[in-house]
Amino acid sequence: MLDDLSLTLLLAVFAAAALVVVLASIKATELADILADRTRMGEALAGGLILGAATSLAGVVVSVNAALSGDASFAFSNAVGGIAAQTLFLALADLLHKRANLEHAAAEPANLFQAVMLIILLSLPICAVAGPDLAYFGIHPVSILLFLAYLAGVRLSSSVKEDPMWRPVRTSDTREDEPEDDDEADKPAMRPALVFVGLVAAMGAGGWVISQVGGQFISRFGLSSSLVGSLITAVVTSLPEFVTTLVAVRRGALQLAVGGIIGGNTFDTLFLVASDIAYRDGSLYHAVAPGDLYWLGTGLLMTAVLLGGLILRQREGPGRIGIESVLMMAIYAAATVVEVTR
């Protein structure tokens, strides 16, 4: 369908799909904040489970489509490149929150646990790549383990939220998770939930279009799958996380902002599970290019730096942002230079 389009029309379709995804995500952020209060789930957990999963849908559509077409590198790099890009977005959002370092203000045990969980989930694909080339019914055992570890992590995240064993020190800059007033919080959640589902469907459709255009970039212009996946489709399908993070920060929902990024990243590891299932030529992990692992390492390193920042809780750093934000931007910039120049 896109084969006969000129470059101008191809870019226009790409931009239109990205716009649909972004606009839907803006409204989804507002609804996620409402659902967090009306379901008594809390901002951090809602950001990780509801908003994070919803805004990641476009990305998983891209990876699955790439895997179905047999391009393992495109599927893998889109997944891990998105994790690195979304972590960068949190550093950029830190620039918007002028009062104090975002990671200081959004202190929340659930976010800390989800960051640890993300490091565990990102470590499993490395073990798969370094281990024996196994595939049962075309699926590597690590994919099953990754999925089960994600489910266990979600369950434990909920318990951390409901019954934390420790609490962060409160300061004048700490932003507490404050629900709506009692009258609003007692309203039913069904209507905003249905609208939210409709927005998720729109984001998924946009993701499918973006995956098709990304394939055109690879075949028509000879770009590498790793470059298109990690720096084009991954960044574009991650724009919802960027928009929702900025909107959440402006709304004062700081825990939702941080939880949305970390939770979205943990959900994004399931891209690899879905892609491994969709890839029918054996183990996805043993079909990827070495450069794709570089982006996996980049996401792992940025997550570790973010976790350190959440624990350190520096109030102010260079330019009134935390040192972890400066480091995350530097790490991502270095990875981009490596990808473009190799």
TrEMBL record:
Pfam families: Na_Ca_ex (PF01699). Residues 10-126, 194-338 form the Sodium/calcium exchanger membrane region domain. Keywords: Membrane, Transmembrane, Transmembrane helix. Residues 165-186 are annotated as: Disordered. It is found in: Membrane. InterPro entries: K/Na/Ca-exchanger, NaCa_Exmemb, NCX_ion-bd_dom_sf. Residues 175-185 have a biased composition (Acidic residues). Gene3D superfamilies: NCX, central ion-binding region. It is a multi-pass membrane protein. Residues 165-174 have a biased composition (Basic and acidic residues). It comes from the Bacteria. Its main location: membrane. The chain crosses the membrane at residues 6-24, 45-68, 74-92, 112-131, 137-157, 193-211, 217-240, 252-273, 293-312, 321-338. PANTHER family: INNER MEMBRANE PROTEIN YRBG (PTHR10846:SF8), SODIUM/POTASSIUM/CALCIUM EXCHANGER (PTHR10846). This is Sodium:calcium antiporter.
